[in-house]
Amino acid sequence: MIFYKENGGLSMQKILKGIIGGVAGYVASILLILILLLTSIELVAFDIGYYKREYAKLGRAEAIGISEEELLESTEELLNYLKDKRDDLHIVANIRGEDRPLFNQRELDHMIDVKNLFQMGWQFRNLALIAFVLLVALLAFLYRGQSFEKLAKAFVISAISLAALSALLIFLIQGDFTRYWDQFHYIFFTNDLWQLDPRTDILIQMVPEQFFYDTVMRILTFFLGGMAVLAIMFGSVLAVREKP
Asked: How many CB atoms lie within 10 A of CB 27?
């Protein structure tokens, strides 16, 4: 049964439509933002050229006692492992003139956790993409030609809020990156295998804290740049449609 208010008030059907559409729009915009964040992480984390530049900048090959060529080859194998293109990380490399396993057992065990985290991230992104498409389809069903406008409004509001949070995050990590990097590990890992010894563990010698700081800032740059592009695109659509 549909109820109407007197004097042309909204029907219950229209109220429900507005609530469902509003929730769908905001959830879709949040999913789009998460998809963009996870994609930004992937683009940076698997860019071998980025590793090459960082290694040169931080003098990693010399610090480890390995050739630059072998360091990059080992990194490519590590990335292949994270992509599930190889089964293990039992890599032998020449370190300070001696052929030896590149990673010890603690490092190998930690990388299992890292690989699982990446795999879960990709699975979540795939599910988020499916859910996003379904929500956009729902908006199209509810609002027909106005569905894009509904999504655009929700995204712009979400983007403004997230931009403020991102600015706060950048401010915080610049003040004490170690503290917040440790907090990240406490949240996403259930053990202390990530606490490696930079004097003996090659993995942390390859990617020291400065590397992770640079990486986080690069990810945020990609992410906020993508957010800005989408916000401009959605904002332009809203501006055009609101013109008399």
From this structure: 16
C-alpha 110/C-alpha 180 separation (Å) is: 19
Can you give the pLDDT at residue 186? 96
Domain around 148: 12-242
Residue 7 belongs to some domain of the structure: no
Q: How far apart are CA 77 and CA 82, in angstroms?
A: 9
Which pLDDT tens digit goes with each residue over 92-115?
Answer: 999 999 999 999 999 999 999 999
pLDDT in tens, 13-33: 777 777 887 788 889 989 999
Q: Cβ distance 112 to 78 under 8 Å?
A: no
Q: Answer yes or no: pTM beyond 0.85.
A: yes
Bridge partners of 101, per DSSP, are 92
Name the amino acid, one letter, at 74. S
DSSP letter at 9?
Answer: P
Q: Give the CA count within 13 Å in the CB-facing half-sphere of 58.
A: 21
Residue 167 in any domain: the answer is: yes
Q: Which residues of the chain have pLDDT under 50?
A: 1-8
Cα distance between residue 207 and residue 61, in whole Å: 11
Q: Does 185 reside within a domain?
A: yes
The answer to whether 203 touches 110, Cβ cutoff 8 Å, is yes
Amino acid at 191: N
Q: How many domains does the chain have?
A: 1
Residue at token pair 């401009």: 232
